[in-house]
Automatic annotation (TrEMBL):
Residues in Gamma tubulin complex component protein N-terminal domain copies: 220-477
Keywords annotated in UniProt: Cytoplasm, Cytoskeleton, Microtubule
Pfam families hit by this protein: GCP5-Mod21_N (PF14609), GCP_C_terminal (PF04130), GCP_N_terminal (PF17681)
Gene Ontology CC: gamma-tubulin complex; microtubule; spindle pole; spindle pole body
Protein name: Spindle pole body component
GO MF term set: gamma-tubulin binding; microtubule minus-end binding
Biased composition regions of type Acidic residues, renumbered to the chain: 814-825
Family: Belongs to the TUBGCP family.
Domain Gamma-Tubulin ring complex non-core subunit mod21 N-terminal, first and last residues per copy: 65-157
Amino acid sequence: MASTTTMNYWLEALALTFVPPATNSTIVGKHKDNFTRRVKHHTYGRTNQFAVTEKLVGLEEKFQVLNLDDVAGELFSRRVELDRDHGEMKWLPDVLDLLLHLSIGPVKYSRVEDLKTLKPDPAIRPVLKWEDIEAEDPIDRRDPIWQVPQYSDFSSDEDEEIVASSTQTSPASIKRRHAEKVDKGSIFDAPPVEVTSKLEAAQFWRTLGHDVTITETQAVKEVLFMFSGLPTSVFMSSDDGFTPNARYRVRHLESATSESLLKEAADIASEVQPTRQWLRARQDTSIMQLVHSEISEVLADFERTISEEHSGILHQTSPTRAVSLLQVLQRIKRASLPLKALKTITSQSARNDPVTVLNNIHNAVDIAQSSCNTVDVESLLPIFLSALTLYAKSIDIWLHTGSIAKMEAFFVAENHKNPQQKSNLWHDWFSLTSNSVDLIPAFLKRFTAKMFTIGKTAAFLQHLDASPLDDQVIDLGVTAAALEAANLIANSPLPFSATFEMILERHLTALLNSSTSTLKHILETSCGLTKLLDAFDYLYLGKDGVILDTIENKMFDQIDRSMDMWNDRFLLSDLLAEAYSDIKCVDANATTIQTAYTSSRTMENRRRSVKILAAVSISYHLAWPLANIILPTSTACYQRIALTLSQVRRAKHQLERRANFYIQHMPLIDNGTHINVARLVYWQLLLFVNVLYAHLTSCVIQPLTRNMRERLRSTSTNSLDDMISIHRQYISALEHACLSSKRIKPLRDSLISVLDLCIRFSDMITSAVTNTGTQIAPRERHEGDFEASSFISARSRRRRRGKNTSTGDFASSSDDDDDDDDEGMGEGYSTFVFDEDTSLGQEISKVRNEFKKHVGFLIAGTRAVARSSTTGVRVVGDSGEFEVGERFELLADSLEGAFPAKRRIGTI
């Protein structure tokens, strides 16, 4: 750092540069001392060393951009050297900062002698003078820029009076004007008498009399005041609008003409006044506040037009220098057209009712566009788009994310149940509010269901952690549809409402198709919908008979041996897991066996009816996305269909595995006729079971399942609601066609009776061969079975009341016999009851008679159900792919072909 002596010398030399040459030495000494003392004790801030470094680095980069790498390298090397050798010097940043400020073109002027070229040469570039400027561009001294403002004691700092200067405005004239004396005593003097009389004459409202004439200028001013909402004398204001005061008349016009013009002005103001009154009301909702702001802007434009008319009158800027009331009214009327368009909104809209306002604006835009009213369309359409954009913001959020935005009112409510189960997400988490009809504008009501479905689909995808929507549909929604419709109405021959509905329908359809296709892909790939349906085919619909034989043969054998543990759920679970171990679609860990004991009878009596199989049911665990499609009621339908098929297989097992060998190879009765009857009954029972099972599996289950899967995969399935509806229609039709529905309980009871006959027939045949006797066990054998003894006693009492009682009405008989079984699905007695002291031949004849009666009832019943299912009681959709009427008719034809009426009626 420089020494103190050197610094003082430099400061004195610098101080001398500010002192004139011819100055006394004493004064020079004072100046040097003061200057040195001020410099040394001056509180200045230190230079920012980091800013200096940034400037140097920026300068280095600038050299590199200018392709001066050598200069940039030199600068870099010197910076590094300074940081290494002189980094501790505190004055170094100040010096570098000074050099940066002194540097001008460091590349061009790298030498000190080159700095001389920066000084302009007076000979080459002379000094510019005002005379030269005025010679090239003459100054217009009448231009307002040369007007000098004059201030007085009566004006504030904000208000200034602009006084036009004379044509010869110059500094000398300005000095002369300011030098003039102002007579302050005359400022507060009263005006002359002439001015006072003119002022009183201009106040026409003070004139007495019934007929007061006013000038046209006065009339125009009064009209403009009226349009501004100010009180006037010429016009009277009321709740109904404005009316002209009969006292006043335009001076140079006839009374009728003056009255007509003033009446026209009052009518125009009466149409504008409701808008002002509506704007005075306070709006609380955000949409109404936005509409309020938009209408205020339209009114502000109208008031600017009124201000321009005022300005034209004050400055007399009219081309003819005359004020015309008729021309003013024409201009005002043209400017008031947007406010007249808003009258449909302000006159019919209640306070804080955005839905009503949206409906009114939509209808007004539709009418204006249909009638080619361009002014109304241009005035109303921006307000409608702004209000609808704000209103539809929450709807678009719902459509894209499935979340309910926090707003004043929304047509979808989220049901807060604790805890919320994802398996009920589609059905229970969201619902339309009770007042949703009042929360949706009329032009959006027809889309409510679709918007509700799209939002639920988006929520479903959100819980599945699906990828967001692609760019093609992310911008679709109510707002985008409204903007697109607004751009098209100029060239569209359709009304605005039709155009908007068409575009909105396309947007919503695209959104729904995109989200549904994504959801279907996830359900298929990640959730395994097809795999689940395949598992149901194996578990409930009997797809693989070999596996079912493996499971049911063991179970049926245990039933025939009267083992109470035949339905032990642990043993059945192991048996099921072993049987389906090679089937990939069936997850043994997802299966659950439920068992129930619905009777206290002995196993010997329970095994005689196929109803015993109702004590076992299989449940399959569903992932929560699939549980939203396959409802618990549908699972119960699957279980009832599986029970029906199992009961048919139970009867078939008895006939083929037990009775077949004894019928073919073992002597039953000495009477050959009875043997033929027994064999005939056997083949009829077996034929019935085979025809029925083949019909249920091949003609009902396979085609209906195939149609269901095709419809689930079809592109016409546009939503999860469609998938749920398709599966619900399918399983309902399947249950109905498989005779498992509760609505056809008489037919099912008759079917159970036939299947019980198969078991009873097998028991009789095997008992006869094994010498167990054909007599009914004595009553004391049932002493341990209270229900059985009570049942036999009841049957005996009925037999004693009369053996000739008609039994033609099978449906009522079945109902009497099954009173202990509420739904006909639980365990019960065999529907075929024997009397005591009967022979084998007699019992076989009874079985044959009962079988013919039940088959006849089934044929007639299925035909009746076929007609009702075809004409009215349909469990299918509009497509008819789940029609079951023809299938009942086919079953009736198959049974009638196997058991003709003559054969059933005649004797053998």
